[in-house]
Amino acid sequence: MDDGADVVDDTAYIQLAELGQEFILKAKQMLMAVQTPFGLDLGAVATAASRLCRAEDDLLIGGLLKKAGVSADLGDWDTLGGPFKAVAEAIAKLQSEGVDGPYAAVMSPAMYAKLVSLMMHGRREVDMVGKLVEAGIFQSRSMPDDAVLIVSPQPWNMDMVVGQDIITSYLGNEGLDQRFRIFETLVLRVKRDVAICALK
């Protein structure tokens, strides 16, 4: 605030991170694809792409956890009503900081499994929590099993800046085999850390 008026902070330069993963296409596999009815085995490509996506998740989720400006108690996610209470309290804290919804929840697959397993008298806990976080419930293997993030993912709160979208480059041959690299450059930009609540 500047004399009662909202103002954007001065521009800050943030360095983009480069994420990449290499893969090799074997000459034997390429020859088989040409000389037989079978297509080229792209398992190495799929594995490299999956690892790159995991590295991107690690970068973004790790950044959100590190920069969370609000914290709340995780509570008991093994008891019916526990997750709903924890998420509701986290949202109340965000609202007290002047952060409006819609909100999103990010959790590990293990925490999501706990959430969907809770049910009583036809009431599913995941449905109840879903009504609180209208922007969605998301799973990420990069999230620890003892934490949940509640965020307001509006562009004025945070965004992801992409310098170079995912692209494949040819690195050269290794004998008859061919080496490639898929890579991207990006950075998480948190503009309001109070829009991120970490439940621990």
Q: Would you kindly provide a written description of the structure presented here, covering whatever features stand out?
A:
By secondary structure, the protein is of the alpha+beta class. Strand 8 and strand 9 form a beta hairpin. It has one domain: hypothetical protein PF0899 fold (2-Layer Sandwich). The chain has five helices and ten strands, in the order E-H-H-E-H-E-H-E-E-H-E-E-E-E-E.
Brief summary of the model shown:
The protein is of the alpha+beta class. It contains five helices and ten strands; from the N terminus they run βααβαβαββαβββββ. Helices cover 33% and strands 32% of the residues.
Break the fold down into its secondary structure elements and pairings.
Layout (H helix, E strand, L loop, with lengths): L16 E9 L1 H9 L7 H25 L2 E3 L9 H15 L7 E4 L1 H9 L1 E2 L2 E2 H8 L3 E4 L8 E4 L6 E17 L2 E14 L5 E4 L1
Parallel strand pairs: 2-10, 3-6
Antiparallel strand pairs: 1-9, 3-7, 4-5, 7-10, 8-9
Helix pairs in contact: 3-5
Quick tags:
3-stranded antiparallel beta sheet, alpha+beta, hypothetical protein PF0899 fold, 200 residues, single chain, flat
